[in-house]
Amino acid sequence: MGTLIKGGTVVTSTATFLADVLMEGETIREVRAGIDTAGHTVLDASGMLVMPGGIDVHTHLDMPFGGTTSADDYEWGTRAAAIGGTTTVIDFALQTMGKRMQEAYTVWRAKSEGKACIDYGLHMAVTDLGEDGAWIDDVDALVREGITSFKIFMAYPGVLMVDDATIFHLMQRTSKLGALVCVHAENGTVIDAIVHDALAEGKTGPLYHALTRPTVAEAEAVHRVVALSELAGASVYIVHVSSEDAMREVEAARKRALPVMGETCTQYLVLSIEDDMGKPGFEDAKYVFTPPLREKKNQGPLWKALGEDVLQVVSTDHCPFRFADQKTLGVGNFTKIPNGGPGVENRMQLMFQHGVNEGRMSLERFVAVTAEAPAKIFGMYPKKGVIAAGSDADILIWDPKAEYTIEAATHSMHTDYSIFEGFKVTGNVRQVFSRGELVVEGGKFVGAVGRGRYLQRAIGETL
Ligand code: URP
Ligand code: ZN
Ligand code: ZN
Asked: Which of 90, 111, 217, 441 could pair with 121 as two cysteines, CB 3.0-4.6 Å apart?
């Protein structure tokens, strides 16, 4: 009657134990050792880890940005996510300045309709609250549509950046509703001044993208937005924390018991200026994303912060652009390089290798930062993010011994390069179930395109 995953090792954020998992329809029916096989389709999972499907809460699919559009649409981006063991993404609907947020919601639902391969939610990236904040009630309307997190940019002046008053007004409303404000924290105007000077000095190559965005500009913005959230009584979540300086600000806020949370991304944990930039020609453009790669000394503190719950989540900020015809828009002027990199397919592999295998985090913490905490913070728990009776059967059957080399030649994302090219990992997806349906087997997506559902998210938890 159901599908029985037999003999695997189940991992949750608090325990690792031998147990069978019975799926019936779209949900998990039972989790315990020794479930009778009679009447069920049996899948032998001996030697495998059985974990909740990954949740990547930071993707930019089919998003117009930097004079072009991110290279993965909903079909390609969510297919690549599934192949890499992620069964839920939360993508950003981006409000156009001068237009209402509901319009962005409609546009993003249309982008995903008939295309999403796995379940997905939306954050709203707020760029305009209308004259004198006239559109603030749109926040309430969107919460009713299941958008319970609102992103603001303190960077990209003239494009996406909002001022402190707008942030404060938004926070006053989200705090009433219990919704969350997600923050791209960088001091955009100061960075623009540094960029202006660099260009005037003829520093136009892609490495200068990284060198003109100091970690202190990130830390200053985190500090400021924490102060604004304290004034408004709001919960905040700092996205893509890339440096020790910024992380320390999150840590300081949490020490004061403020409702401040944060994520880092795979690229900041395993790549650095020293190891990955400074390449000849225009190659460094592959690593132009924002915040930029940092000096290697930041990696240790970020791993530690993730392990010790200073940061709660690891995401990818998947915002892919092809090298050949998109990154090259910035030849001769790094400010014209579309900002973003591909990664949604590799998060689970890289976190398993560099986190679990290399002793930086336990298996339980791996599950916490890749699935359970994202589900809790973003209002999807216990439907998503856990292997438990009653939850959606979003299940990852993970072979901890499988060896794999990351390469653009074989990845599913629509980019002609990988920022993790040549990285070797041990541990990879064997099968993926999404709401009880086998969607990945043999490294291929075997589900139907468009089967993914929009997630009407509830108000999340503060962790
Ligand atoms: O470079 C990036 N990260 N592009 C996407 C937009 C953002 O800032 O998250
Ligand atoms: Zn950002
Ligand atoms: Zn982003």
From this structure: 90
